[in-house]
Design a protein that fits this description.
The chain has 317 residues and is of the alpha+beta class. It has two domains: 9-207 and 308-312, Antithrombin, Chain I, domain 2; 214-304, Alpha-1-antitrypsin, domain 1, CATH 2.30.39.10. Helices cover 31% and strands 29% of the residues. The protein is built from nine helices and ten strands. The chain has helices at 24-30, 44-57, 69-80, 85-95, 103-117, 141-151, 165-176, 275-280, 283-291; strands at 9-19, 123-133, 153-157, 196-206, 218-223, 227-244, 249-255, 262-268, 294-303, 306-312. The strands form two sheets. Strands 3-2-4-1-10 form a five-stranded mixed sheet, with helices on both faces. Strands 5, 6, 7, 8 and 9 form a five-stranded antiparallel sheet that branches. A hairpin with a 3-residue loop joins strand 5 and strand 6. Helix 3 (69-80) packs antiparallel against helix 4 and helix 3 crosses helix 5 (103-117). InterPro entries: Serpin_dom (IPR023796), Serpin_fam (IPR000215), Serpin_sf (IPR036186), Serpin_sf_1 (IPR042178), Serpin_sf_2 (IPR042185). One of its GO terms (biological process) is collagen fibril organization. GO terms for molecular function: serine-type endopeptidase inhibitor activity.
Length: 317
């Protein structure tokens, strides 16, 4: 097998997330189904995700920052099998595994299978992963077949002319996300001869277990980079909630349809930017928050959103 070690490896994540309205029939069906407890955060994707998120937010970026640590970890594990020397060591450091550690691979495979099997229940998910290469050393056919069959990682060759690289990447991402448009990268990728680009694209649409209804929507002021009027959805009910007085944040878990997934919101006590909250996101603290969630009756108001994000991890990783 040709080693990956002499080849520069770049990373690109393209994601689109939506919050939507749920119908009344969905809500009635799931009322008797208890929401599962969130498990302890020992899965390798949690540490990878939080590490990358903090690195991306360290400069106080005002752009949307969404990543899928599960897709990224799966792709990194796929390439780790063909890496040698210092490159293999970098993969091990990112995934926090040792050279012959099979437990992480089994955990990632199980998690990815679970996510795909739940597709169409709690959420609608379209995802795609690919390894783009440009004048790179020829990889063995058996290795590329393993990437595809075991990890769902396609291999796509880029043309010699750099001006078409981003067009090809964005076309691939749009196809992988079922036609969703992507946002442009703030910093262009450097696709020099011999480069490889690891790319993941994800389109996620969650279905609430307790729906927000059209008749309850209105326009209210919402602070993004500035105050704007946005459509807000409202609902009262019982939700899992924790109030961290010391760090001045509320943690709220919203269950998704059929109880196979949930969304966790971290809300500051006062209006502020995300810099302080970003610094609070450590593995130990998030685990503590999730372990202290209790069922509480409350009224919710959330913006109805469709958010897109394109993240370049070339410098971070």
């Amino acid at each position: 097998m040709v080693p990956i070690s002499p080849v520069p490896l770049l990373f690109l994540l393209v994601l689109a997330l939506q919050s939507i309205w749920s119908s009344a029939s969905q809500e009635l069906k799931v009322q008797s189904s208890p929401q599962p407890e969130i498990s302890r955060l020992h899965h390798p994707t949690w540490s990878l995700g939080l590490q990358l998120y903090r690195s991306l937010r360290i400069d106080g970026s005002q752009t949307n920052t969404f990543i899928s640590p599960l897709l990224l970890a799966n792709s990194l594990l796929a390439l780790e099998g063909g890496a040698k020397g210092s490159t293999a060591g970098q993969f091990h450091d990112l995934l926090r595994i040792t050279k012959n550690d099979k437990a992480v691979g089994e955990a990632l495979t199980k998690a990815l299978k679970s996510v795909r099997e739940a597709n169409g229940t709690s959420y609608a998910l379209r995802s795609s992963s690919a390894l783009f290469s440009k004048q790179a050393p020829k990889l063995e056919k058996s290795f590329l077949e393993k990437l595809q069959t075991h990890f769902g990682l396609q291999h796509v060759a880029l043309e010699d002319a750099q001006k078409h690289d981003m067009e090809k990447l964005q076309s691939w991402a749009k196809s992988g996300m079922d036609g969703e448009e992507t946002v442009d990268l703030e910093l262009a990728l450097e696709t020099k001869p011999g480069a490889m680009i690891l790319a993941n694209a994800l389109n996620f649409k969650g279905f609430w277990d307790r729906g927000f209804y059209h008749e309850n929507q209105d326009l209210r002021s919402f602070l993004g980079t500035k105050y704007t009027k946005v459509p807000m959805m409202h609902r009262s009910g019982v939700y899992r909630h924790y109030e961290d007085i010391e760090n001045m944040v509320q943690v709220l878990e919203l269950g998704l349809w059929e109880g196979k997934a949930s969304m966790v919101l971290i809300l500051p006590f006062h209006v502020e930017n995300l810099a302080r909250l970003d610094r609070l996101l450590t593995l130990d603290r998030v685990e503590k928050w999730l372990g202290k969630l209790n069922s509480t009756s409350m009224a919710l108001s959330l913006p109805r959103t469709k958010i897109s994000s394109t993240v370049n991890l070339q410098v971070i990783v």
